[in-house]
Write a structure and sequence with these properties.
By secondary structure, the protein is mainly α. It has a domain of 89 residues. The chain is built from 6 helices and no strands. Helix 2 crosses helix 5 and helix 4 packs antiparallel against helix 5.
Length: 141
């Protein structure tokens, strides 16, 4: 921590703010490239003017993430990193969620009221791991 008696008084105020210096810059550039492609295709900040449908962005996130997971780093059409697309989609959704006047259509399914489903699922995972204590290593390149 900075000694405020001998340091710049601005440090004392600045250290109470969000530390954007903690965010790695190269991923932001990938996100910006995906956002730029979207702005060229659909118009810059179109999502703020027209609103979004959450399911459309969720589906896009899943497609980009799964394509990346299956070994395709860049989207074939835009040549932009799939994870940059994921970041862009998440940014657009979060931008709407955090907005004072959200235009997005929240078409998520009804909330899962059985709050114990995840605990039960994790219990079943633990059973499988106990059944196979010497699990085989995954095949990776």
């Amino acid at each position: 921590m900075v000694d405020m008696k001998n340091g710049n008084p601005k440090d004392g105020i600045g250290l109470t703010k969000a530390a954007l210096s903690c965010v790695p810059i190269p991923p932001l550039y990938e996100c910006a490239l995906a956002m730029m492609e979207g702005s060229l295709k659909y118009g810059r900040h179109n999502y703020r003017a027209a609103g979004i449908r959450y399911s459309v962005y969720f589906d896009a996130i899943c497609r980009h993430l799964m394509s990346w997971w299956e070994g395709e780093d860049q989207s074939p059409d835009a040549k932009v990193h799939h994870l940059g697309h994921v970041m862009a989609c998440c940014s657009i959704m979060l931008d709407d969620v955090l907005s004072e006047n959200p235009l997005g259509i929240d078409d998520r399914p009804p909330e899962t009221f059985d709050t114990g489903w995840l605990a039960e699922f994790n219990r079943r995972v633990a059973e499988l791991k106990k059944k196979y204590p010497e699990a085989k290593e995954p095949f990776t390149p």
